[in-house]
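Forgive a beginner's question, but might I ask you for the amino acids of a protein and the tokens describing how it folds?
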Amino acid sequence: MGKKDTIARELENTLLRFHGKLTSKELRKYSGVKDKTKFRKVLGELERDGKVTVSRDHVVELIREENRKTAVIVSLSKGFAFARMEGDEPDLFIHSSGLNGALLGDKVEVLPIMNDPKGPSGRVLKILEKKEQRTTGTIVREGFYFALRADCAIRYDISIMDRDLLGAKEGDKVMAELYTRPGGDRLFARVVKIYGEGSSARVCADAILEQNDIPAVFPEEVLKEAEAVSSRGVTDEDRKGRLDLRRFAIFTIDSASAKDLDDAISVTRTRTGGFKLGVHIADVSHYVREGSRLDAEAITRGTSVYFADRVVPMLPEALSNGVCSLNAGEDKLTFSAIIHLDGEGNMEKYEFRKSVICSKVRGVYSEVNEIFAKTASKELKQKYAPVIRGLNAARELANILKRRAKERGYMELESVEPQFTLDENGVCVDVKPRRSGEAEEMIEQLMICANQAAAKLAKEKGLPFVYRVHGHPEQRRIDTLIELLDALGVSAKEIRQGEPKTKDFAAILERVRDTPAQRVISHQLLRTMDKARYSTEPIGHFGLALADYSHFTSPIRRYPDTAIHRILSALCVGKSPAEIGRMYGGFAQNAAEESSRLEVRAMAAERSAEDCYMAEYIRQHIGEEFTGIISGVTARGVFVQLPSSVEGFVPVDSFEGCQFTYDGLITQYDALSHKKLTIGQELRIQVIAADVATGRIDFLPAEKL
């Protein structure tokens, strides 16, 4: 052990003898270190290594192991940052002087120091993992200089030296590397890629994919493997040993634009008054084999990503739109869930079989809705004639399943999913809420039934599995919901005590249905719920009020479905549960964890792209007036959602002659007029600005309050 190490050990031992805290003068005295220069040097090294803290008053305190926390820097502002700690602790405020060189995304070891009414604060002890400092953003001008307005959580514009512009101009969307100069902590940006004009949502969508590390292009070797697999088609060897369902009235129903048809159905009435449901899913696991390049690529993508102008698929088109797509009139390999239900929709028995089908009709939601509404043309009736009995039986079964779902407390949360219309140049020219008809709801109920059966089978057999789970909401979130309900004058009696069940939340939703409060309460209920995720533990799905649930029905676009197909395939060929456990225990765990993480990544990217397309649309209506509904209230102003689903912000200081006070929850009160701005209230606004690059939309009040 060297002399420095000896001194360091002596200083730590001395602090331990005096309950972990001494002034630097006392520490030098009691440790017996006579050389003042060496003492200061070693003490400085101990501080840099995160072993002690030294206050401005020269008090040295030993950092105990239990006080160290692991966190990630989640936002960066001028002069301070926030770190998100593991577990459910609040974010930690860190002054820039306490960052110790940490930047956004870095995994760090932190020391919480103070806890005041504004929240906990602390400092970075050391950086555990450095994140690559790259971000997309928009070039802005600051006087004679340029800067990067980052798309990540850096809350200030980052300076760019002229030599680092790479030819980018004001308004361009770019990818940039971030760096600090030696010995300094000021952040600079260096442009490494130019996407194009930031006023184009299509260009911004390109950047969003890269910012979220979503691969837009398949490697050449993956494409070649997909082409080779797809070109073989369906052979006699493939059909061998499969349940032959080609003569049955099986059909698909999807949107008119869909090309990856991965689910087909068949429904018949039984002699006992029940139903025999067949849910026939593309047998993706037959083509995407374990250990293949296709499989490795699929698990790194996790899910298909949907933007207004494109789909970034999980699998190459040779599979997703080719050999795996259940096109009408073609023999296709499927994995069938065959479920017997009684007349009340109770599941009596089920089996999962490898099968071969030949879909009789390529159904379209809008066409089926016309048939159900009895407005279909003669041509449409002829198209669906081969499957009309099965279609009517499917409708009847779905209505029974929907009634049962309502009885057990299934929550129909209102979520406004936008539907975008683009012109020939890819510019968004219209936005409206997406509406689901009876056909969409019918397919949803039948898919839920198949997903439930798959989970039941796995649990019964004790298989390693990837369940779709949704836990019970935390009490603190329930308390926040109760506070909102009280403020809106809505009874919350069902959830005030005990451990509320799904049906208790459903009762509240029913209470506010078709009222101005419906949208906000539905939104808050969504925030109250635990996030759905994938798990190897069958803890059930709270939102659906189901004890058993999985994702079996979309293996073309979701990896968890492909994973459980692989596991159930092993069961179909006679492998024992114990053997399957040895084969797929680790695989199931990894698939669940990665799929959960990649689902969050995809959703974040999709939301960011939606914001850009909405801004592109509403930018064409600058100066126009609309009537919307107040959808959110903050200390600075209110959010207003238009009938189109576009949402913008109205600052409270834009209301002339008003002095607003925020109640901290849902309302801004005007002290002068005694009027208010509250959630659910109609408000006439004027569109004044829309920034496509950031997705920010600004409104002004178009009339006096």
Remarks:
- The mean pLDDT is 92.
- The chain has 18 helices and 34 strands.
- Residues 208 and 605 are 6 Å apart (CA to CA).
